Amino acid sequence: MLNSDEIKEFIKLFDQSSLQRLELEQESTKLVLVKGENSAVTSPTSPILQESAVLPVAIEKQVSKQVIESPASDSLYKIVAPIVGTFYSAPEPEAAAFVKVGQKVQEDTVVCVLESMKLFNEVEAGKQGEIVEILVKDGEFVEYGQPLFLVKPE
Q1: 100-115 burial, b for 16+ CB within 10 Å, e for fewer?
Q2: How many H helices and E strands in the chain?
Q3: By three-state DSSP, how is residue 105 classified?
Q4: Based on the domain organization, do 100 and 55 belong to the same domain?
Q5: If both were cysteines, with which of 15, 59, 75, 95 could 90 make a disulfide (CB 3.0 to 4.6 Å apart)?
Q6: How many domains does the chain have?
Q7: How far apart are CA 14 and CA 54, in angstroms?
Q8: Are the beta carbons of 86 and 115 closer than 8 angstroms?
Q9: Residue 10 and residue 151: Cα distance in Å, rounded?
Q10: 72 and 50 in one domain?
């Protein structure tokens, strides 16, 4: 786990660099530093640290999957992006999609992959049910916490 002195040093080095984004994972902690417009990567339970030249800085516990209730309907759940990255509906460009609208899924069914820093991260459904809607397009960049799928639970 990163201590506060190490985090401050990363912020200082990041601030002095030409990098616009830096992600660092160590054990179960992930440090994300972003320069620029008001785009933040946050976790509901993690503190946000800010420096004058570095806009958002967040420490988040790595979460393998997140499923939250849809505010539009009590009966639908959203599968949300656990990280920022590029959304891919299939494992390869010519392969069939992991899931389609109307398909039944289990909690551990892989529904897509998110590419972040040339690493492909599988996203699992996290809820047993039926895919009602796919909310993003293949190749689209998604933010942390962005809804990807709507699932009708069984």
Answers
A1: eeeeebeeebebbbbe
A2: 1, 12
A3: strand
A4: no
A5: 95
A6: 2
A7: 8
A8: yes
A9: 39
A10: no
The answer to whether the CB of 87 falls within 8 A of the CB of 112 is: yes
- Kindly tell me the sign of the dihedral angle through the C-alpha atoms of 71, 69, 106, 110: positive
**Structure pTM?**
0.53
- Please tell me what DSSP assigns to residue 94: T
70 and 143 fall within a common domain: yes
Q: What is the pLDDT of residues 74-124, one digit of tens each?
A: 589 999 999 999 999 999 989 999 999 999 999 999 999 999 988 999 999
Using the 3D structure, point to which of 17, 38, 61 is the last residue of a domain. Answer: 61
73 and 110 inside one domain: yes
Q: What's phi and psi for 44, nearest 5 deg?
A: -55, -25
Q: Are residues 56 and 70 in the same domain?
A: no
